[in-house]
Design brief:
nicotinate phosphoribosyltransferase, TIM Barrel, Nic_PRibTrfase-Fam (chains A, B), 2 domains, transferase (chains A, B), 19% strand, glycosyltransferase activity (chains A, B), homodimer, glycosyltransferase (chains A, B)
């Protein structure tokens, strides 16, 4: 869902007070390079998934301080007149490159790089991180679930368990991770995602009995609908469901199971359906699923999975822990300099970075190569020498023009395909749900002239 | 942040297909009672916190299907003409009562009760649950953190770690749970919450050295500002920070520590500040805090806590697991009947419910009394007999008029005060961070005429 009200106040106050300070010292106009990356993957995760890129591009475009925003900032005394003047004219005039949406990433992967003046680039920190952290967390969970489902369709149904606007973004991120439908209508309207859903237990309960409910649903949605059969007794429910469809002249599309021991029930219900001759009637299951439950259901005769809470909350990891760090900036002499803080436990690697995925002879990913370099050209030459697939694409051209192919109507479908290809390229260890290291190691090479630090230990 | 685009498509598709089916069977117009409650509290939680009520009321008011929404539904073939006609004219015409925002709740507490026709009430399920599940999860985490902080101010800084619109709602929910400020500007504009923030590491790094950065910040924000002292060496940072403020003719407001061993550092930095004579300079800490880290820091000389990720993601429980269930509806004879599904592991208690908090002689909460009753009058009489404090207030008057006191400009501050009172009323066990039962038990009494079930086991 496009935020119609502008995105400029979806911002931490300190982004603006930093501009206020930087205007005093003359550093607001220094050319700067900010990088989005993660220091580590969440426990048990073998890879991350870039998601939200298209939403970031929309948010950057909508990042304007209108009269209402300026009035609020002035009234609340957040910043002074000089900063307000800068914000009033603000539009992002720098450039952004990054991993294309759907790509897998690893600790230290520079998944988005924002270049511009310090003021231009720092102010985007909050909204860029919010979008990427949320959407990537959901996409990573979705990817594990679709891996565990081994080709059976996974459907997103978690809208009620997360913030109402997050739900729409979560549905989109789930598609990046391989999901094939969503329950939430706004995601259908905004992103063209197929919407799914038939009825809840309340529909059965508002009727005098299950027969009446099933008859009404079949009359409205046709015999190909999915009937929820566990409001009362499942065996009786299945019987009535098949009968309701046949009375309307068809075979039932599917039954849905939403409680109890789903593995055992799937076998029982499949047997019952087959014995009733309803061999084409499918079984969909929906109760508190996550990637582990899905893996356990693989041996059962289930046709599709509806996933709610665990998907939209990132299956234990609701945020991707991406950070946005200044890695290079113009010095007093006008030359670009690598910068990095040295805080205990939070040290960062300085410098503009170019990244590539090194593959072995069987075209399987073997290594994430991250090159700190003075210029993109020198970094890309290093990737070419290593035979690495370049990971970064242009998202916003220098000057602020957005590369529309990364947010057009086909962008989501392409991101889904890209993710599948990126995941399939990883070694088999990537598919495991258990504890373990990232699927491939990240190797950092520093070709910045005159640099002699050894940064390997800090990734 | 008010959703300006309307909330009607922030809805699961099945809400609309249920209306389609219910129109066929004539049940769409049956008077119905839906109830929001949770079956259990998350692990280690002794109480839940109602939050999001004001946002629910706004969402109900904005729940209208405009031409754009109708066009989408028609074009996508989601529902047929009769349902579209109903939706085109839709506005909620029923009534809503519930626990006032900020109240503590327990398993089985009927925190919101929606009455209206089946069609009127079922369609609000998704957006009501989304708001309450998100906001209550954040408020519950916030409440544990402010309890652990023992009066030291807690400040919300998590915008970058959650969906950009959730961030604004999370800031609001944090205030319900006792937080006293937020970093995110939109929460300042939308809800009048005090915003806070000064500078990140990037601000120090964009300058040629720490002295220049501190001087610029003090010039812009005054010596009372908070300086981040751990970009390089903390001891040197503290020295420079105090000096920068004094050069500008004042004493430094505070230093911020954002990495390393915060407990040890807080002692060292306090000692250093005192030895420099900066006894009024405060210490704020901000690195990956949760309620346990805050509790551990209690013994250290820290003045305030900035909490990010763990707050906005509900500290391990990003959703409150509230459900929205049909508990009573009109039968064929026009009389209201209790209804409940009997699915294994998901059984619900039927009937309209009235709830009260029973207190012991020292006015401390002893029990959550939940009465299933045929009418509000009979339920309230039962509460009075038990001497229980009635928990439900009118939120939407019958016919759809919203009770504005629950969403006006003062509503948030009152919810914060109400939460503090509600929490203080609980037994001391409520304050524990460890595993344990809900702070008070829920007792269910069924005075519905002619009812002989024993529902006690299902709460």
């Amino acid at each position: 869902m496009r935020t119609t009200a502008g995105t400029a106040l979806l911002t931490d106050m300190y982004e603006l007070t930093m501009i206020e300070g930087a205007l005093r010292s003359g550093t607001a106009s220094r050319q700067s390079v900010f990088e989005v990356f993660t220091r580590r993957l969440p426990a048990r995760r073998r890879y991350g998934v870039v998601a939200g890129t298209a939403r970031v591009l929309d948010a950057v475009e909508d990042f304007r301080f209108s009269g209402a925003e300026i009035d609020y900032l002035a009234g609340a005394g957040i910043v002074g007149d000089e900063t307000l003047d800068l914000l009033r004219d603000y539009r992002f005039r720098g450039s952004i490159m990054g991993y294309a949406e759907g790509e897998c990433f690893f600790p230290g992967s520079p998944i988005m790089t924002v270049r511009g003046t310090f003021a231009d680039a720092v102010v985007l920190e909050t909204v860029i991180l919010a979008i990427l952290n949320h959407d990537s967390a959901v996409a990573a969970a979705a990817s594990r679930m679709t891996t565990a489902a081994h080709g059976r369709p996974c459907l997103e149904m978690g809208a009620r368990r997360t913030h109402e606007a997050s739900a729409v973004a979560a549905a989109r991120a789930a598609v990046v991770g391989g999901f094939s439908g969503t329950s939430v209508l706004e995601a259908g309207r905004s992103y063209g995602i197929r919407t799914i859903g038939t009825a809840a237990h309340s529909f059965t309960l508002v009727h005098d009995d299950e027969e009446a409910a099933f008859a009404a649903q079949v009359a409205a949605l046709g015999p190909g609908t999915t009937l929820l059969v566990d409001t009362y007794d499942v065996t009786r429910g299945v019987e009535r469901a098949v009968a309701a469809a046949r009375e309307a002249g068809g075979e039932l599309g599917a039954v849905r199971l939403d409680s109890g021991d789903l593995v055992a029930q799937a076998f029982t219900v499949r047997e019952q359906l087959d014995s009733l001759g309803a061999t084409s009637t499918k079984i969909t299951v929906t109760s508190d699923l996550d990637e582990y439950a899905i893996a356990a259901l693989n041996a059962a005769p289930v046709d599709s999975y509806g996933v709610g809470t665990k998907l939209v909350t990132g299956s234990g990891h609701p945020t991707a822990e991406l950070v946005y760090k200044l890695v290079s900036r113009e010095g007093a002499d006008g030359a670009m300099e690598e910068v990095a803080k040295s805080s205990v436990s939070k040290a960062s690697l300085g410098g503009l970075k170019v990244a590539g995925r090194v593959r072995d002879r069987s075209s399987r990913a073997a290594e994430e190569l991250v090159v700190s370099c003075a210029t993109l050209g020198s970094g890309r030459a290093e990737l070419e020498r290593a035979g690495a697939r370049p990971m970064q694409v242009e998202l916003v051209r220098d000057g602020g023009e957005i590369v529309d192919e990364h947010r057009d109507d086909g962008a989501l479908e392409r991101a889904k395909e890209r993710h599948l290809a990126s995941r399939n390229e990883l070694p088999y260890a990537a598919w495991r749900l258990s504890e373990g290291d990232p699927a491939i190691p990240t190797r950092h090479v520093d070709i910045y002239p005159g640099d002699d630090e050894d940064p390997a230990a800090t990734i």
